[in-house]
Design brief:
The complex is a heterodimer of chains A (327) and B (280). By secondary structure, chain A is of the alpha/beta class. Chain A has two domains: 23-186, 3-Layer(aba) Sandwich (Rossmann fold), CATH 3.40.50; 202-326, 3-Layer(aba) Sandwich (Rossmann fold), CATH 3.40.50. Chain A has helices at residues 25-39, 51-54, 57-62, 74-85, 97-103, 105-114, 142-147, 160-172, 218-231, 249-258, 274-285, 305-311, 316-325, and strands at residues 23-24, 43-47, 67-69, 90-94, 120-123, 153-155, 177-180, 185-186, 202-205, 210-214, 236-240, 243-245, 261-269, 289-295. A seven-stranded mixed β-sheet of chain A has the order 3-2-4-5-7-6-12, sandwiched between helices. Chain A has a five-stranded mixed β-sheet with strand order 9-11-10-13-14, sandwiched between helices. Chain A has a two-stranded antiparallel sheet with strand order 1-8. In chain A, helix 1 runs parallel beside helix 8 (160-172), helix 4 (74-85) runs parallel beside helix 6 (105-114) and helix 9 crosses helix 13 (316-325). Chain B is an alpha/beta fold and 280 residues long. Chain B has a single domain, classed as Thiamin diphosphate (ThDP)-binding fold, Pyr/PP domains (Rossmann fold, 3-Layer(aba) Sandwich). Chain B has ten helices and five strands, in the order αααβααβαβααβαβα. Chain B has helices at 12-33, 39-43, 45-55, 79-89, 129-142, 161-172, 193-197, 202-208, 221-233, 267-279, and strands at 70-73, 149-154, 178-184, 212-217, 239-244. In chain B, strand 2 (149-154), helix 6 (161-172) and strand 3 form a beta-alpha-beta unit. In chain B, helix 1 (12-33) crosses helix 4. Chain B is globular, with a radius of gyration of 17 Å. The chains are: A alpha/beta (327), B alpha/beta (280). Bound molecules: thiamine diphosphate and magnesium ion (MG).
């Protein structure tokens, strides 16, 4: 499963926000879940034989009675989670994003979304930075799959601190949620006093020339790109759209009204993800040019995360070039 | 504490009477609706009536009462059966049945828990109910809640892989507050189950997956009651009742007919069917 690769996808560059060492969002998840388990007896956790990778293993060790390893059976895991939620438990069901959303989509649709059950699907190994395991394990369509479902909330945290805030918010929220986490270590990008709210984007800055609406690891790339562009006199805004659904329409609108060009940036297919959500909204309300940075309708491949990001045009330099080319 | 308002029925002839009422209601609403699933609603009626009215604790006035036993119709296309049971129990007035499958009706074509309190979870995509039942059983066990879960599946439905995932789960976690039923009527949409995709030896399969298996005639009320008792007494492992049934049971001209899976009675057929059930 490629656990041996420890180097960060983006750690080779200077982190934007903090001096803290990069940390994988899944590592943070494992710790926060453990803390939640201590505080709340209604929290239960399910996994499909990946608890060492998704980091739910920490919770499992501390609370064996409230942890259910479902074996390699994602469909059953989702249904069982729905059943647990219907008795008042707050189930967190975790596996890799590909399997969570793809293998169990019909189950998520019927017993989670249509039944509107209080199930938290927290998937790890989202996106291309899964790395060496290759395309079979790189979820690039998960956001599209989850975003199309009524009642579903879709969240992609940008760093470990935001992940902690997200998991706590999600535990308090009533209803289906999909949270996408990553495998690789990522730098801290959010301000120290930041607190996540479902449906609320964090606006670093609204630019007059261009605004980048980013999610996940692409927030870091966007911040770096904005700094580089500033040197050339291009006023570039950055928004962290960690909740992809419901979209913070107000924030998108203010970005679109301030600058004629919008870039979306995500570690996901350009089809159906954040870029699509922004385009769908703006084309109906305030049409401006939107360029989608993302994986361009192709599968990934094996490789180290940094190389993969380069190959797929997902670096700060790619964002800078795209913006300069289109201004 | 809340219990079924009418009180539990243990008298066999009384239960048979309820089953007749339920069958007539099923036919009534299907005739009114003009579409829906006739055969599988009728085949599971006797077992479902026995579960609902002889075993389950619930209160229609308080559908979310925590101590209630839970009924999951995994074969959601038999929704008319569930609605007939719920009407009989007093969840809603009789005339609501006339709105089956109509716009904005609480009686959706397949059961919807958000539109009709008392439906425990939405079903309709086959193969999913047993997993939900397991989750509920585990949740109740964590709370030391003595309530029980009943889950009815179709024999064709158990071709779904997820059923066997859930079968493993129930045995692995020694879920004994759950009683599953396979409505073994031998038919699915494209023909006899054994022709489409054989599921035999069905008893051995469930047993091999770690289940206590009880085989019965699913239209014999004494056998059904005995099986439900046995299931309740079985500890440390899940129980499945393989109920051998007749698809379309109770209406001679629907029985054993593949095509009556998904077609509804004409008004003339309805009249004849009701007469048969009354005389039967
Ligand atoms: C996942 C899924 N696939 C297909 C269907 C369409 N379908 C509805 S009923 C049915 C046959 C069910 O046969 P069985 O389980 O034996 O039910 P019964 O005979 O009791 O009606 C099928 C294929 C469905 N509802 N769900
Ligand atoms: Mg059948």
């Amino acid at each position: 499963m490629g656990e041996r690769i420890q180097q960060s996808a983006v750690s080779s560059q200077q982190s934007a926000g903090s001096e803290k060492k990069p940390k994988a969002t899944r590592d943070e998840y494992g710790e926060v879940l453990l803390e939640l388990g201590k505080k709340r007896s209604d929290i239960v956790v399910l996994d499909a034989d990946l608890s060492s990778s998704t980091k739910t293993g920490k919770f499992a060790k501390a609370f064996p009675d409230r942890f259910f390893n479902m074996g390699i059976a994602e469909q059953d895991m989702v249904g069982t989670a729905a059943g647990l939620s219907l008795t008042g438990k707050v189930p967190f069901a975790s596996t890799f994003a590909v399997f969570e959303t793809g293998r169990a989509w019909d189950q998520i649709r019927l017993t989670v979304c249509y039944s509107n059950t209080n199930v938290k699907l927290v998937a790890t190994h989202g996106g291309i930075t899964v790395g060496e395991d290759g395309a079979s394990h790189q979820a690039l369509e998960d956001i599209a799959l989850m975003r199309s479902l009524p009642n579903m909330t879709v969240i992609v945290p940008s760093d470990a601190a935001e992940t902690a805030s997200v998991i706590n918010a999600v535990a308090d929220y009533k209803g289906p949620v999909y949270v996408r986490l990553g495998r690789a270590k990522v730098p801290y990008v959010m301000p120290d006093n930041y607190r996540f709210r479902i449906g609320k984007a964090h606006i670093f800055h609204i630019g007059k020339d261009v605004n980048i609406i980013a999610a996940g690891i692409m927030v870091d790339a966007a911040i770096k790109a904005a700094a580089l562009l500033k040197k050339d006199g291009i006023d570039t805004g950055v928004l962290n759209m960690s909740t992809i659904k419901p979209l913070d329409e107000e924030a998108v609108l203010s970005a679109a009204k301030s600058a004629k060009l919008i870039l979306t940036a995500e570690e996901h297919s350009i089809i159906g993800g954040l870029g699509s959500a922004v385009c769908e909204f703006l084309s109906e309300t305030h049409p401006v040019r939107v360029i989608r940075i993302g994986v361009r309708d192709t599968f990934g491949c094996s490789g180290n995360p940094d190389d993969l990001l380069r190959i797929h045009g997902l670096t700060a330099e790619d964002i800078v070039k795209t913006i300069k080319d289109s201004m | 504490m809340s219990v079924l308002t009418k009180g539990k029925i243990t008298d066999v002839s009384e239960l048979r009477k309820v089953a007749k009422n339920v069958r007539i209601r099923i036919l009534h609403m299907l005739t009114m609706a003009g579409s829906g699933h006739t055969g599988g609603s009728l085949s599971a009626a006797d077992v479902a009536v026995a579960i609902y009215f002889s075993k389950m604790n619930f209160n229609p006035k308080e559908p979310f009462w925590k101590g209630r036993d839970r009924f999951i119709l995994s074969k959601g296309h038999a929704a008319p059966l569930l609605y007939a049971l719920m009407a009989e129990a007093g969840y809603f007035p009789e005339d609501v049945l006339d709105n089956l499958r109509k716009i904005e009706s609480p009686l959706q074509g397949h059961p919807c828990c958000k539109r009709l309190p008392g439906v425990e979870v939405s079903t309709g995509s086959l193969g999913q109910g047993l997993s939900v039942a397991n989750g509920m059983a585990l949740g109740l066990r964590l709370d030391k809640n003595p309530a029980r879960i009943y889950c009815i599946m179709g024999d064709g439905e158990i071709q779904e892989g997820q059923i066997w995932e859930a079968a493993m789960t129930a045995a692995h976690y020694k879920i004994d507050n759950l009683c599953a039923v396979v409505d073994n009527n031998g038919l699915q949409i494209d023909g006899p189950v054994q022709k489409v995709m054989g599921i035999n030896p069905i008893h051995d399969k469930w047993a091999a997956f770690g289940w206590h298996v009880i085989g019965i005639d699913g239209h014999n009320m004494e056998q059904i009651l005995a099986a439900l008792d046995e299931a309740e007494k079985t500890k440390g492992m899940p129980t499945v009742i393989i109920a051998n049934t007749t698809k379309g049971k109770g209406v001679s001209f629907f029985e054993h007919k593949v095509e009556y899976h998904g077609i509804t009675p004409t008004p003339e057929e309805y009249e004849r069917a009701v007469k048969e059930i009354h005389n039967g």
